[in-house]
Design a protein that fits this description.
With 445 residues, the protein is α+β, with helices and mostly antiparallel strands. Helices cover 33% and strands 19% of the residues. Bound molecules: glycine and manganese (II) ion (2 copies).
Length: 445
């Protein structure tokens, strides 16, 4: 009897096949042990919203904590049946579920997540595997955040303690974290068609939020009002979460790369840098637009904006099969350096890093900075391309450039024959942005 149906965001075969792909890449006679992410405490008895470990979720589809997954390269005999994977999960518990919501429980995981061998996490120590029988034990264990609940023998802390005791003999060869991380990065960097659909939807929602904000925006709005508006659109459009703290930096704040305080009142004449990402069914998007608070770029703002835009366009052109991962970044640096030299902002090439100090590209997926192996591009990879220029006041260049912080970021799907900009619903040219800001938002009507 299935008491608690969990909606699956991806077909269960996706997760089953991911474990198969992992097993195929594991070394001979090895076991891979994955711990679920711990529940993160804010303070006292308040926790942050739970976010599954992306590798754990990718392999299982399970969204609860206090769980351990084991995958065996070669099937083992346990209780006289051959087992090539097993999972420990938290049991159903009516009392706890009244407070914290439904759990899948042992039977739910068996039936919905298609695991043949599911064990209550309270029985972790009962399994008693002999780890010396493996040539290699591969582990993926979050570095911190295990809090021991003395009343729960099945919590992460208890399972972790027990595992460490079992592995604490010289004859067990343990390879922490790295090999599994690389295997998973090698798998996760290629997206299935359903994953691409989810990222596409996240991008559509982010773009809608950007568009409606630009239509709604008036000088004098506070940065947090922009944030509230954007995140209202996310939730209203069906995105459960934001993939990272929204960055709404006006004026000087646009030069702070991960600014997320968003407390300042915007002023006519400022630029506003908006770097946001809706998360849809676990998948991130990550897009930035920079617009003039009063609806019209000043001449110096326009010059820098168009330079960043040129760098972005040239970088995006290089997001195609066969190009090396960092080629778009190298190209962006070249364009930005040449442009800033021409504008007299810098006098030598290497000074480009004074005003552009971050990478241009990263993978996007379950993580906003997703896992991948940074090899040459292949179809079904998704990347963000995000050049920028940041000139805080007091910089060693003409004053007319001071306080300009500009980033333009889109998400790009690599296809067989080229690429597709998934965030293209939001305009990017000076003219189109100024025109959009003159439109009225009908979002609330
Ligand atoms: N918002 C984080 C990034 O752009 O990478
Ligand atoms: Mn971003
Ligand atoms: Mn980014």
């Amino acid at each position: 009897l299935l008491l608690h149906a969990q909606d699956l965001d991806l077909p269960i075969e996706f997760h089953v096949n991911n474990r198969k792909a992992l097993r195929a890449k594991m070394p001979e006679n090895s076991v891979a042990i994955f711990f679920a992410a711990p529940i993160q405490k804010k303070s006292h008895d308040i926790s942050y919203a739970y976010h599954p470990d992306p590798n754990f979720y990718y392999l299982t589809g399970y969204k609860e904590s206090h769980s351990v997954l084991m995958v065996f390269k070669t099937p083992l005999k346990i209780d006289s049946i051959l087992v090539d994977e097993l999972i420990f999960v938290q049991e159903n518990n009516p009392n706890d579920e009244i407070w914290d919501g439904a759990r899948l429980g042992v039977n739910g995981v068996k039936e919905q997540l298609k695991f043949k061998y599911v064990i209550s996490n309270k029985e972790f120590s009962v399994l008693n595997l002999n780890y010396e029988d493996f040539d290699l034990v591969l582990t993926h264990i979050p570095a911190h955040g295990f809090e021991d609940n003395a009343r729960d023998p099945g919590d992460l802390a208890s399972m972790h303690k027990h595992l460490l005791l079992d592995l604490k003999t010289d004859s067990v060869l343990v390879n922490e974290q790295y090999r599994l991380k690389d295997i998973l990065a090698g798998l996760r960097q290629f997206k299935s068609s359903r994953e691409i659909e989810l990222i596409r939807e996240a991008c559509i929602i982010s773009a809608k939020a950007q568009n409606e904000l630009m239509r709604t925006f008036k000088s004098g709005m506070y940065e947090y009002q922009a944030q509230a508006f954007l995140e209202f659109v996310f939730v209203n459009e069906g995105a459960e979460k934001r993939a990272f703290p929204s960055i709404c930096g006006s004026g000087e704040n646009g030069c702070v790369l991960h600014y997320s305080e968003n407390r300042r009142q915007t002023k006519s004449g400022d630029l506003m840098l908006v770097d946001i990402g809706a998360e849809y069914k676990g998948y991130a998007s990550d897009m930035t637009r920079t617009f003039p608070v009063n609806g019209k770029f000043s001449p110096s703002q326009k010059l820098i904006y168009n330079l960043v835009l040129k760098a972005q366009k040239e970088a995006i052109k290089l997001c195609k099969v066969g190009q090396k991962f960092w080629t778009p970044h190298d190209k962006a640096i070249k364009v930005l350096a040449a442009g800033m030299m021409q504008l007299g902002i810098i006098s030598s090439y290497k000074d480009v890093y004074r005003y552009y100090m971050h990478g241009t590209n990263h993978y996007v997926g379950l993580d906003v900075h997703d896992a991948g192996l940074y090899g040459a591009y292949k179809p079904n990879q998704v990347v963000a391309i995000e050049p920028g220029i940041y000139i805080p006041s007091g910089s060693p260049c003409a004053e007319k450039w001071w306080g300009i912080g500009i980033r333009i970021e889109d998400n790009i799907l690599i296809t067989k024959y080229g690429n597709e900009v998934l965030t293209k619903d939001t305009p990017v040219s000076v003219e189109d942005i100024e025109a959009l800001m003159k439109e009225e938002s009908k979002y609330f009507k």
